[in-house]
Amino acid sequence: MQKPIMVAGFKVTLLFDGLHDDELSTICHLSGSEAAADARGRYGRDKITIPVNCFLLEKDGKRSLVDCGAGTGWGSGYGRMREELASLGITPESIDDVLITHLHGDHALGLLEDGCAYFPKARIVLSDKEWAFYRNSNKIDDVAEGKKGAFDVAAKIAAAYGDRVLAAPAGMVGDGVELIPLPGHTHGHSGFLIGTREDGLLLWGDVMHLPELQASDPEVSIIYDLYPEQAAETRKTALRDCLEAGFIIGGGHLGCFMRAEWNDSACRLVPIL
User: Which of 219, 216, 203 is nearest to 253 (CA)?
Assistant: First the structure.
């Protein structure tokens, strides 16, 4: 477990849930197959292996999570976030809020255990656009095969948590926590800004999966982006904002806390610890 950081009075701990392995064919590019092949070559590995992260926020006796991993929903390779919480002496009952960036299984299935609420007292907070889209069965046919899983995740969360789900618009969702729309990866994909727009931490979910490629070339995509062009524009905007404001960045698939910086006319993400 990495050393926590302090941001605007919050103690923020990165929690590791597991490793996600995938084929190189997962890497795409908006410019087409040749650019995708070039990106795969630059990646320089035989397969994709990326961490799955969650974040613990602690302030004034309140505990929140940003995302909660896959729990037992994706098999034994995931769910380590629960072990890391236990090692800190933190029980599921002591979590007040779980803030969800989007409804993919590796970010939201950790809310569940055998169809029931794993966090029995928590409020679940996510984008109203994300919730409305994936709770609308009429939208299922609009989504390509292989990208429909979030509809099932949403239905299970609704059954387990009921009126403890808060579908929120962009803006403040707690003391010092702002929901920031970052659409493209999913319909209502969002991040959470901890602190202020002058000096904060942006927990940006899945804006990037492969920072070594996507920071310098935001048009590198992955097959799981629901709207690839919109996701690329979101990456460009998020990088610009992080460069201008100096935000610390935490991501669902970044190895550590990072900052964006310019290097030889290209952007890159560099660890802060």
Answer: 203
Length of the chain: 273
The one-letter amino acid code at 257 reads F
End-to-end distance of the chain based on CA atoms, in angstroms? 12
The number of CA neighbours under 13 Å toward the Cβ of 261 is: 7
Percent of the chain with pLDDT over 70: 100
Confidence of residue 197 (pLDDT cuts 50, 70, 90): confident
Whole-number Cα distances in Å, 92 to 54, 63, 153, 177: 14, 10, 20, 21
Rounded to whole angstroms, how far apart are CA atoms 158 and 135?
9
Q: Which residue from 109, 67, 72 is spatially nearest to 205, judged by alpha carbons?
A: 67
The predicted model scores a pTM of 0.97
Q: Distance (Å, rounded) from C-alpha 58 to C-alpha 12?
A: 7
Distance CA 234, CA 243 (A): 14
Distance (Å) of CA 266 to CA 56, 116, 146, 175, 209: 32, 46, 33, 35, 18
Give CA–CA dist 253/271, Å, rounded. 13
